Structure of Alpha/beta hydrolase:
Amino acid sequence: MNTHPPIRRAIPDDATVSYWRAPDGWPLRRFDWPGSGRGAILFQTGRGDVFEKYLESFDHWHRAGWSVTALDWRGQGGSGRLSPNPHVGHVEDFAPLVDDLAAFWRSWDAPGPRIVMGHSMGGHLVLGALLDGVIDPAAAVLIAPMLGLRSPFPAHVAAWVARAMCRIGNPARAAWKANERPGSRFDRQQLLTADADRYADEQWWYQQVPELQLGPPSWRWLARAFASTLAQQNDPRLKTLTLPILMLVAEQDRLVDPRAALRVADRLPNVTVQRFGAESAHEILREADPVRNRALAAIDAFLDGQRG
């Protein structure tokens, strides 16, 4: 007997999945769920993610009146691939992804206030768009943001290795074969969430729509991620970003570097930080109920504060 709430494994009847074309013609798969007038949330996922993984959270915000929209990033999910190998997550640069976000934001016909949320890589790209001034939300929520990468080596050393691997072979080849992080003593579920049922939702969706699934990143993706996060950590514009930001940080995150996120938070003038300890892995919104409920309550309180 399937005990999963239907919302986790079905697109809601009053939501739509369609495609939006970027200015260069690239089709990006989108999700839209009209709300009841509270405002609109644009939710951007992490590397290799698809928006189906967050339907349960979308339902929470939708029941509070929010319209919810999400895009699969260029190169992953239902938005095509940037590598000849459809199972490798590749980018030559993150700039086209930020450009997509900026262009979509300009074209997005949604009721205000408009809120942007980003998980993991999505958090990094959302913050980049905010720093560049190409989106203008009323507030932002960054969830386990990729503001640094976990590595057995210092970030500048790992970045050098990734650049070297790009030079000695095809930079679009997979940086490793399996798992979210090479050499980890933890299996993939432990890296993402302690909730086995929510973890299983992801594989269920990939069984229904196999072309959505992505595998490990390319060496070029890895090199760009190290370079981009290091540059962002030292960006002088952080101190001038007065937009209200809520940052949710899993202090024992084994995929992104929570210390880097906290250093960035220290430089933001209008940030609220919600920390989670060993009880939370990387996917805070897909964690066991005690963690997930606390995260949603923090987001709700933050959004209520902006309305007030």
